[in-house]
Amino acid sequence: MRSPATKGFTLVEVMVALAIVALALPALLVALSSQIDATGYLRDKSLAHVVAENKLAELRLLSRVRQELFKGKESGSEEMAGREWYWWLESAATEVPDFYRVEIDVALDQGDAEEPLYTLVAFLSGDLASLQDDTEEQPGG
């Protein structure tokens, strides 16, 4: 029995507290580790999105200059944020005349074409003659 003047914890109370900490700490470390992995994945996915958007913008610009939309498949790589990104582009006609579906897949490894990190799908008009600048259409420009 403890006397009223005695202060502190018993050995049993200390052992129970240590057991609780020993069980909770690994669970906390696992949760923290998975959170760090998820943050890295989201960073990579965001950068892959930017790579795909850049490729789509490049495709639009080249189509405008050449007055012809790219048709078929193409692949390549580019560097962004200090890393090498691999992309695969495929343009195919749709059921709508002069309307094409463009799919751009982006991955970190060249062998990940079947499971890309990010896929961008866009639809582009093949009628590039109607895409003239507004300045050319206005008289007295």
Automatic annotation (TrEMBL):
Query: Where is this protein found?
Result: Cell inner membrane
This protein's assembly is summarised as: Type II secretion is composed of four main components: the outer membrane complex, the inner membrane complex, the cytoplasmic secretion ATPase and the periplasm-spanning pseudopilus.
The reply to whether DNA-binding figures as a keyword in the UniProt entry is no
TM annotation in the entry:
none
Q: What do the Gene Ontology cellular component annotations say?
A: plasma membrane; type II protein secretion system complex
Q: Which family does it belong to?
A: Belongs to the GSP I family.
Q: Which residues form the Type II secretion system protein GspI C-terminal domain?
A: 42-124
UniProt modification remark? Cleaved by prepilin peptidase.
Annotated SUPFAM superfamilies = Pili subunits (SSF54523)
- Describe its function: Component of the type II secretion system required for the energy-dependent secretion of extracellular factors such as proteases and toxins from the periplasm.
Question: Which InterPro entries does its entry note?
Answer: N_methyl_site, Pilin-like, T2SS_GspI_C, T2SS_protein-GspI
Q: Which NCBIfam families match?
A: gspI, IV_pilin_GFxxxE
- Per UniProt, what is the membrane topology? Single-pass membrane protein
Name of the featured protein: Type II secretion system protein I
Q: Which UniProt keywords apply?
A: Cell inner membrane, Cell membrane, Membrane, Methylation, Transmembrane, Transmembrane helix
- Pfam assignment, any one: T2SSI
